[in-house]
Specification:
homodimer, 358 residues, alpha/beta, Aldehyde Dehydrogenase, Chain A, domain 1, Aldehyde Dehydrogenase, Chain A, domain 2, seven-stranded mixed β-sheet, 11 helices, 34% helix, globular
């Protein structure tokens, strides 16, 4: 996303390949370079580098003017610190940690609990759970319908086939995350085979809501892989408290019937403060590249909540406004000439217009 | 600027009054609060606090989500560091240091050198030189016309009346800045009475271009007050080197006849990299609040070059995008409803439209 946005903004890009899939990175880089050549972009507009420890040199290099990053909270924070301490500080757009809460409303569980269980399980295990927007916590209101749903989701998650992850490091992190959950006294394991061998096993846990309300670290941390965690709240007041206890996230999802959504309309302003994208009756995995997309959110989901790494709004990350005062029309580029030869829609004295300026 | 922008973006503001003009600050705050009451904005939307050392507590307070600042490079850097080290880091929009280079082209000096000297002196001493966009360095190409211009500017600056600055601290800083220039071996004093008493004396200096080319600190630092510094370059190549040696600035100004501007069109891409606003045949003091204004620039002029503190674009500083996916039309605010009841121009599937969505 950031590479496409930076190129669209006219910036050359230096890309550090992930050590876990270097051959894939090389294939993608070659495709980008071929495309750049075919479209006659300047030579050197895209560069990929390989190696451990080269990130630091890159972030500190004076020619680098912005950084995009996806990865761990520690890694992202370290990059932000380095960038802020440069002689000339630069922005870092880091996507670091998101557990993407899903709120299940009572009417939907009553009307189509089993379908929701199937769909939600599908979203959790999609691509072995290796999506930033993987639903990592599922919140429901205590009720017979939610209890039935828990059984249904347990069955769904228990019947998932193991999956191969992107690389061995990812599998190691996933196994460690699962162990932490298994060993936590406030967390119950509901489904999933022991995590052993070379593939990731889908897992389902249930945690006491007090862990979330008391700021337990484990419930704020993303376990990157095919796992999710159920939380049961006693009533609407506790649902509100639980959502407010969440840190910044990329997404929040609300599953509800029309009557649910009217009744729980008060969720929206709470979720707006917490996330970059709010979904209704959908699942957060799958991200459309379009004008309306926001794939960002408050810290620690991202280091800079004012943008997105996916969608056309991402181009703004790599632009800096420059104002020309009293420049001769003849010395202005076509986009700014009075005659508007490119027929652009422009803001002229506060009014949008695609007409020439008289 | 930032207060107006934050309010326009829907954010409440806590403003720390400058200790040098507290009564003025109180008058302005009262006016803002009266306006907020008359327009029925929520109570507490604007707050002013007084006192030394309260800034740190403000920047670190979890309810504060962004910081605007105008002041010294050291002060701004310290705030940026504090904000970056918060448990939840927040953006700082600091405007810190700018010497606003003015480039005088040969044709203009030939055609109207005396007028330029008068106008430029007026810009340097306007408001006792207390503007972020005060022209702090004036660059010209060695020639008889430039030598004559130097004499004319020397006469203009020498005949300025002393002026009262905003506060005693500002006068102390100005006196110290003037002393540094007077004591530098590479800097010649051309005009200005000794800096003594309670008012600021306008001063004119000339510095050897080598100071700029070798990165001498003194030539990069803003002297906040009615003073400016001439630099003579040998030729176009040295002009280019001198401009490239400048750090980030708020503005750059080019004074030239039409033939000059065509011949020196190559200046534009260099200046674009260095500043937020480029002026032709105007002077950087006076800033219009409008859609096109950019009152920002690369570090150290500002801490975040992607924005502006003056003009409507400043509102973006205080906004964060949120995407709603599959939200019921009935639960959307009027601005987003399909019928477009507010008649807004909206980006719909990539096309601008003020029509209802079918």
């Amino acid at each position: 996303g950031d590479t496409a946005a930076a190129l669209a903004a006219g910036c050359p890009v230096v890309f550090k390949a992930h050590s876990g899939h270097m051959a894939t990175a090389d294939l993608v880089a070659s495709a980008i370079i071929r495309a750049a050549e075919r479209t006659q972009m300047p030579k050197g507009v895209f560069n990929m580098i390989f190696g451990n420890g080269v990130g630091e040199g890159l972030v500190k290099h004076p020619a680098i003017q912005a950084v995009g990053f996806t990865g761990s909270l520690n890694g992202g924070n370290a990059l932000c610190k380095m960038a802020a301490e440069r002689p000339q500080p630069i922005p870092v757009f880091a996507e670091m940690s998101s557990i993407n809460p899903v709120v299940l409303l009572p009417g939907a569980l009553q009307a189509r609990g089993e379908t929701v269980a199937k769909e939600l399980a599908g979203s959790v295990v999609m691509g072995a759970g290796q999506f930033c927007t993987n639903p990592g916590v599922v919140i429901g209101l205590r009720s017979p319908a939610f209890s039935t749903f828990i059984e249904q989701l347990t069955e769904q998650m228990g019947s998932q086939a193991p999956q191969t992850m992107l690389n061995a490091g990812g599998l190691r992190s996933y196994s460690k995350g699962v162990e932490h959950l298994l060993s936590h006294p406030g967390v119950t394991h509901l489904a999933g085979k022991p995590q052993e061998g070379k593939q990731a096993q889908a897992q389902l846990f249930k945690a006491d809501v007090s862990l979330l309300l008391n700021g337990d670290q484990l419930l704020q941390e993303e376990v990157f892989g095919p796992t999710t965690l159920l939380i049961e709240v006693a009533d609407d007041a506790q649902l509100k408290d639980a959502l407010q206890a969440l840190r910044g996230q990329l997404t929040a999802t609300v599953i509800g019937e029309p009557a649910d959504l009217s009744q729980y309309n008060w969720l929206q302003p709470i979720l707006e403060e917490k996330v970059g994208r709010i979904l209704f009756n959908g699942y957060p995995t799958r991200v459309e590249v379009c004008e309306a997309m926001v794939h960002g959110g408050p810290y620690p989901a991202t280091s800079d909540a004012r943008g997105t790494s996916v969608g056309t709004l991402a181009i703004d990350r790599f632009l800096r406004p420059v104002c020309y005062q009293n420049r001769a029309d003849s010395q202005s580029p076509p986009a700014l000439q009075n005659a508007n030869p490119l027929g652009l829609r422009r803001l002229v004295n506060g009014e949008w217009s695609d007409q020439p300026v008289a």
